Amino acid sequence: MKAVVIGGGIGGTCAAIALKRFGIETAVYEAVKEIKPVGAAISIWPNGVKCLNYLGMKDALRELGGHMRYMAYNDYKLGQTMTRFSMDPLVQRVGEQPYPVARAELQAMLLDTYGRDSVQFGKRVTHVEESADGVTAWFDDGTSAHGDLLIAADGTHSVVRKHVLGYDTERRYAGYVNWNGLVEIDESIAPADQWTTFVGQGKRVSLMPVSGNRFYFFFDVPLPKGLEQDRSTVREDLQRYFADWAEPVQKLIAGINPETTNRVEIHDIEPFMTLVKGRIALLGDAAHSTTPDIGQGGCAAMEDAVVLANLLQTHSLGIEDALLRYQEKRAPRVKDLVLKARKRCDVTHGKEMALTEQWYHDLTEETGERILDGMCETILGGPLE
């Protein structure tokens, strides 16, 4: 059996590693000539960590991950702690740590595990064709690749998705802009072992520890879509949007590097339940493009990879049958994650400000149990409990 994998990002490489684990021949084709990860870092929650452990990267991941022992929400104006609690109850319940990691380092780990030289770069898919003996992908350089099945992990702008669904999907603007990057840890801004988030005015400023004595930071601001701003004005823009915020936020803004700070308009896609067609399967953002508000986009792609590979290995009624079983297992799960993230996004970013203000009030009475219960429910919905 040979699998053609379209996309060399998190989902595609995880799928290729998982298939290779079972002796399934793989060929990975990536559109860009050099992968430059979108976003500075990613929070890998225990459901994703378990998938990477399963795929043989347990020790390597721990070298990359930050130690996030506490979680805290702070008031935006005075910087006072609204709630702070240990994440140990979550770890004990789900059986694994969360690991925030730099995206570039995660991508390098995945490529090294699979075999960087085995990925063909500069191969942008234009269309796919199914036949009696398999699937062929055609690329914009005139070449093609043939396999017994095809895994489309070609991202939120997936070319293959229309072939599977039979219609075009539209990205939905979630209503806010995110700036993100990496800075050296400064404990006058936030503790080095804590996920710290400042909230107010429907905005958010968050810091997570990653390896190398660095914070992954992000700023969220509800803004109109398509607002003209660029890297040259990043610091001035953030100083304007967060003018009356607490001193640690001002210190963070002063310390960022505009040249390495990303600005992203956040979108998702309405969930759909069709993830396969014949011998073609959608995986990762191609199958479930979500906002980052519950930190499950990358983790869901890792789950997809493990479930798909296991089904292809453990079932013998044919590729089409295994892919339909993949769809049956994954479609409800990923729909739930997309909608949970959307709901959290709306509350966090002031879509209905009365609900957001109530959330701020609730945070001042939060002991951690309610927040951790919700996180555990999401994590334990994964395939490797």
TrEMBL record:
Its EC number is 1.14.13.113. The keyword Zinc-finger does not apply. It catalyses: urate + NADH + O2 + H(+) = 5-hydroxyisourate + NAD(+) + H2O. Keywords: FAD, Flavoprotein, Monooxygenase, NAD, Oxidoreductase, Purine metabolism. Residues 2-338 form the FAD-binding domain. Its cofactor is FAD. GO terms for molecular function: FAD binding; FAD-dependent urate hydroxylase activity; urate oxidase activity. This is FAD-dependent urate hydroxylase. InterPro entries: FAD-bd, FAD-dep_Monooxygenase_BioMet, FAD/NAD-bd_sf, HpxO. One of its GO terms (biological process) is purine nucleobase metabolic process. Gene3D superfamilies: FAD/NAD(P)-binding domain. It comes from Rouxiella badensis. Belongs to the FAD-dependent urate hydroxylase family. Pathway: Purine metabolism; urate degradation. It is an enzyme of class 1 (oxidoreductase).
